[in-house]
Structure formats: C-alpha cells, structure tokens
Amino acid sequence: MFQMQTTCLPTDKRVVAKMNDLARAGVRRVAEMRRHVEIFVREELFSGQTVPEVSDSRFWPSGRTILNAIYNARKQLRFACYFFASMQSMTILNKAISMVSAP
Hints:
This protein has helices spanning 13-24, 30-45, 63-101.
C-alpha cells in the first residue's frame, strides 16, 4: 500500500509555537532547541501514546527549520522593542507639547 512521505509536510503548529516561545525565552542554539522540542513532543504532545518516527518532519524539525524559527522569533522581538521605544518617545513628545501649549 502507498504510504505518504512525511518529510515534505510542514511542521506542526504546536511545535512551531513551542519553538517561538523558547526562542523568545532565550534559546539560541539548535542543539538546545532540539532537546526542548524532543521533550515537548514526547511528554506533552504524545504523552502515553506512540511517538511519531524521527523521520516525521511535522514533529521533528530539521536544523534549518529550527534556525529559521529562532531567527523569526528574534526578528519579531527586535521590531517589538523598536515599536515600544518609538511609542514611548511619542508619548514623551506629546506630554512635552501639551506642557508647552498649555496656558
């Protein structure tokens, strides 16, 4: 019987979310992320069930996929910090303007 090849399927959304959370928490190395993902898959997603094969890329992302997740999470943090800083400076500027224009 035909068996679908699991190497070309996208990574499971729960695994991607976990990698994003870990990257935001400071995980920067692929080996460390892989270890955390393995624990997550074995103990949280498939607790008491048969764990998918290691060749299943939906639950066992490649090193490149992990690097991309780390990069994207760091990029989001960088832009969030920039946005927060610009909002703070706008708030300070608005307060200064209101103080100057007040009679």
